[in-house]
Backbone:
């Protein structure tokens, strides 16, 4: 809102009664902003989209920070950003080609992945990432779970990370969670043919208003976050395509079962 209105950071600082450094820290997510200051900023930036302003106000945390802040200084900011995005999302859509989604991984499966990170992680770092992964999963396992639509390619199902026993247990877990009303697991088979994208993981997190939607994609150097409408539109179409060629939820569950029993 500030940049769209042509307001400098110094002007925003003067308006809100803060120093310049605090404005920078608010905009990079290090500091919180109160709902009152947020509404003042919106008013002075001539933002008339009340639903958007209300959505931003709902993201303000005047009474404390999220659980992920306990990991600040121990894990990368990008990983913490993923947890924060998930906590605000009203619905999540994901596509995975080579890996089972992190939110649906068993602890044994996740450990195998953390142990092949380059450069190798010491044991205490592996344990830290596993604890963080388990806490992230509360977004779909907790008392008020978020709707989760997940498309997984057959290739990911056939990866035997940790060997047949761990792989079978992971597939059994995937079948179990797919029974939940708020979790929709769909499989794209090899026979489904080509689909758009470079095969990277795509997470589309829907906000309370479309302007707060965010796409997160994986890369070898960490997560990347995209929020421009052209980018969002591209990845919505990408996910629409994959969901269209995927098996139905029931057929997907049967497909997973068939792979599991042959491990």
Residues:
């Amino acid at each position: 809102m500030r940049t769209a209105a042509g307001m400098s950071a110094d002007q925003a600082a003067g308006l809100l009664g803060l120093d310049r450094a605090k404005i920078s820290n608010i905009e990079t997510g290090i500091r919180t902003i109160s709902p009152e200051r947020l509404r003042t900023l919106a008013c002075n930036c001539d933002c008339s989209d009340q639903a958007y302003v209300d959505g931003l106000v709902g993201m303000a945390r005047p009474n404390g920070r999220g659980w992920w802040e306990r990991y600040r200084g121990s894990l990368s900011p990008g990983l913490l950003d993923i947890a924060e995005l998930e906590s605000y999302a009203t619905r999540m859509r994901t596509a995975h080609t080579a890996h089972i989604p992190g939110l649906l991984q068993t602890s044994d499966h996740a450990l195998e992945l953390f142990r092949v990170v380059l450069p190798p992680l010491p044991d205490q770092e592996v344990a830290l990432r596993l604890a963080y992964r388990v806490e992230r999963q509360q977004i779909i396992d907790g008392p008020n779970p978020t709707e989760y639509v997940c498309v997984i390619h057959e290739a990911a199902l056939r990866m035997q990370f940790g060997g047949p026993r761990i792989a079978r247990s992971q597939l059994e877990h995937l079948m179990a969670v797919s029974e939940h009303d708020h979790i929709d697991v769909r499989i794209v088979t090899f026979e489904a043919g080509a689909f758009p994208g470079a095969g990277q993981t795509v997470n589309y997190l829907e906000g309370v208003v479309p302007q707060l939607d965010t796409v997160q994609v994986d890369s070898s150097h960490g997560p990347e976050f995209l929020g421009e409408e052209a980018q969002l539109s591209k990845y919505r179409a990408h996910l629409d395509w994959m969901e269209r060629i995927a098996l139905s939820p029931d057929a997907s569950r049967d497909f997973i079962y068939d792979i599991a029993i042959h491990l």
In short: DSSP finds twelve helices and six strands in the chain. The mean pLDDT is 94. Strands lie at 91-96, 147-153, 183-188, 202-206, 214-217, 224-226. The first strand starts at residue 91 and ends at 96.
